[in-house]
Amino acid sequence: MPNFRIQGVAMKISFSKIAAPARGVVVVTVAEAAAGKESKAAKNKPASGPVLGRSAVAIDMHTKGALRRAIKAAEFSGKREKTLQLLVPGEGQFTRVVLVGVGDPTSLDAFAAERLGAVIYDTVAREPSATVMLEGIDTAKAGAGELAAHVAGGARLKSYRFDKYRTKEDKDAKPKLKSIVIQCQKPAEAAKAHDAVTALVDGSFLTRDLVNEPANILYPESFANRAKSLTKDGITVEVLAEPALRRLGMGALLGVGQGSARPSRVLVMRWNGARDKSKAPVVLVGKGVCFDTGGISLKPPPGMWDMKWDMGGAGVVTGVMQTLARRKARVNVVGLCGLVENMPDA
What we know:
single chain; 346 residues; alpha/beta; Leucine Aminopeptidase, subunit E, domain 1; Aminopeptidase; 2 domains; 7-stranded mixed β-sheet
């Protein structure tokens, strides 16, 4: 049961077998009507309604038909990523019930599952906890465990916020979600698959954090220093300072940064995960212009602040290296990032 820190709140994601809860916030996935047959326990399904699984049918019965009435009134069909929310249905045992359409489950893959996870997170982010019941996905090409893992990954990706420098914000705007339980047919497989998905999401978050930092905080030296933390994941990190760059003949890179008060750097990250450590590595090269004024040809002032994003390539390479290491990828990879500031000299 991994815990992930989001907006200062620890969010726990866990997996369990499908068992309809009797209270709280419940999210149930449903397939489109044309995609399959409804549970035998269901009766009087509207012709255009979604395919309700056993849990959805049980909840409908528990709420004395509130689910079906809402489906009919809203003309909800179960189309992928569409939602239908019921607030305090039945006699109030449930805080909220949310139906999320999966569309045609035969076309449901990992990417589509992540998008569903993002939709689900949006619907429950203001709640302290939620139970997600993955139904209607029996005919998907991917396994139930894999899909559940990617739903969880999509929820985490959607939860990302960069607000470390925010001083004011409405309390209602902050996510409150502390726990998500994802119910599926194969929870053990989901937990195992989620480890690899987590590594991918963590790498994405690292990249986003690097790209979002302001240029007075993230410059060549501080970028390289942050990358040194990857050594704990088994990555060898080397930082080349300007004397070493001159010896290597990297005049073009040094020329870009020579107008800045901050010295240039080249970041070298190595992951040797292949069984044959001597095998030639794959090399990833990321552009790391931490701030780009335009040099002699200054960019227009209104868009100047956007120029902190010219180091996005280096941010991506750094995030990929972390992901490869945390997934124990069987490959040798070298990540190279040229880190400079393009500034006019005094």
